[in-house]
Amino acid sequence: MTTTITMWADVRCPWCWIGHRQLGRALDQLGTDTKVEYRSLLLEPDGPAQPGMTVRDTALSSWGFDAERWTTQSRRIVRGGASEILTIDIDRSLTVDSRDAHRLLKLVAASGLNRFEAWDALYSSHFELNDYIGSWTVLRSIGRRVGLDEDAITRLAESKEYSSDIDNDLRRAADLGISSVPTVMVDSVRATGDLSQSVPRLAKGSVVDR
Q: Where does residue 16 rank: exposed (0-12), middle (13-18), buried (19+ CB within 10 A)?
């Protein structure tokens, strides 16, 4: 019997990148009787009020953090990233409408390309390089890097293709009572803690194509 692992995430979420890497290690332990699905759960489905601001400035001006509390949170995120050998520069990451990035990920999936690599590239661009992943210049570069055809990227940039798929993901998450990211379900059971350990315990079978 096939086991389905579903990860609900947003490329704007640092904990999602950490969970993504943990899930990668879990998948290395599994094989062909497991299906992996990636679902979009945008932190701000309508986009941020002030796109392009740094996360730190947004936290201090709009999210209710004072400087001391944000410093504590920022350091916690940086330490979490370091535990997975990730460089997360959360203070200088930019608030962005991530819908186009998720549409690019949907195109990657529809094209049969490596979804794990594409998600990882977007996380790295956002958190490590502090690129503005709302820009099609940035998204086009990432798309080419993971194997997308230039014309296909252009068609995507000039349309709203896959936006309805993202909305469907959001509705499905709401129906399931999922409101936070990352959320990883192994069939109908939510994986908790370090995903590299909890997912294999819950999963049956194995996965080859990530």
A: buried
| Residue ranges in 13-126 assigned as alpha helix (H) | 14-27, 55-61, 67-83, 99-110, 115-123
What are the beta bridge partners of residue 39?
A: 8
**pLDDT tens digit sequence for 84-135:** 999 999 999 999 999 999 999 999 999 999 999 999 999 999 999 999 999 9
Query: Maximum Cα–Cα distance for the chain, whole Å?
Result: 51
| pTM score, whole prediction | 0.95
106: tokens are 């949907």
Specify whether the CB–CB gap between 122 and 66 falls below 8 A: no
Structure tokens belonging to residue 4? 């389905």
